[in-house]
Amino acid sequence: MLVLGIETSCDETGVGLYDRDKGLLADQLYSQAAMHSDYGGVVPELASRDQIRKLLPLIGKLFEDASCCKQDLNGIAYTRGPGLSGALLVGAMFAHSLAMALKIPVIGVHHMEGHLLAPMLDKEAPAFPFVALLVSGGHTQLVLAESFGKYSLLGESLDDAAGEAFDKVANMMRLGYPGGPAIEALAERYRPQDQEQSAPPLQFPRPMVNRPGLDFSFSGLKTHVLYTLEQYRGDQGQLPSTEVLAKIAYAFQEAVVQTVAIKCQRALKMTGLNTLVVAGGVAANKRLRQWLPHYLSRMGSVSLYYPQIKFCTDNGAMIAYAGCQRLLLGQGTSEVSIRPRWPLSDLAMEAESE
Ligand code: KG4
Ligand code: ZN
Predict the structure, then answer these.
(1) Does residue 309 carry a pLDDT above 70?
(2) Measured from the CA of 138, which atom of ligand 1 is nearest?
(3) How many whole angstroms separate alpha carbon 280 and alpha carbon 326?
């Protein structure tokens, strides 16, 4: 079975071709980040207009790369939600029209299920059950993944998502959008060991770690960064030097990384599981990938899985993979629909009611 995956939930146009036997054949991505950077965040109307412009040429390149054509397809998968309505509609309409013309099944995939399953694109894939930390621009969630399609929410952010906090802090420092990679690069310039004893690294709060449970909150941390920046501003209100910004970026990143590590450890203990999947845009963060195994090594053997860096952020390959699994179970749909708000745990309930 060969499935075309289409991801258009936000500001990336991603397409992928997944073959049940051969694995991922090709993928193509176009990021609108440069266009939104001027605005400090995604402008929904611009996002959907650009999805329309980019989708067809990208699919053309995809078929070229994989040396195949649309007649070879056995199914189409698109991101049904959650995401921006206009952007989602572009993928949904395109997927249904092409599927109708080719007379093949089509399936709407949950974007976060795509992220959660992205490590399965690798040869060494995690086996169910596992705990998943989904850290993206829109979500920060700890999920118990019991089996394919059976996901329950263990905890989530009560306010900003981790990626959103990275983006907002980067915006405060005028680093452009998306903020995660920019903050990561800036934080790398700060070397705590090179600093004099009189200037230790800044210590930012680790939100909600002293409260029981698995929820997160990053909005207070973001405000903490704002106040710290105010403290270091120059006489004319200008931003502090790059060195000081790097020190603040470092302290912020440490706080986010250590907070999620504490909650992951707690989730593994609570569920009694020893497999952790970390996915979503923030899973690309190098400091997170370095700190998590170090921190979790105290628990004994924990198996950690991440998608390849390029499949951490939004992409069409993960949608093609998730869609292929669902189409193999005979779950195609004829109804053209999107769900801009769609809790991941609804998937298990929907399966039961079918
Ligand atoms: O999964 P994703 O592409 O989109 C959503 O589903 O939201 O995640 C995008 C988010 C952005 O907030 C971006 O700043 C963040 O992931 N991100 C990172 C890194 N790369 C992307 N955050 C921290 N470090 C990174 N290296
Ligand atoms: Zn995403």
Answers:
(1) yes
(2) 7
(3) 21
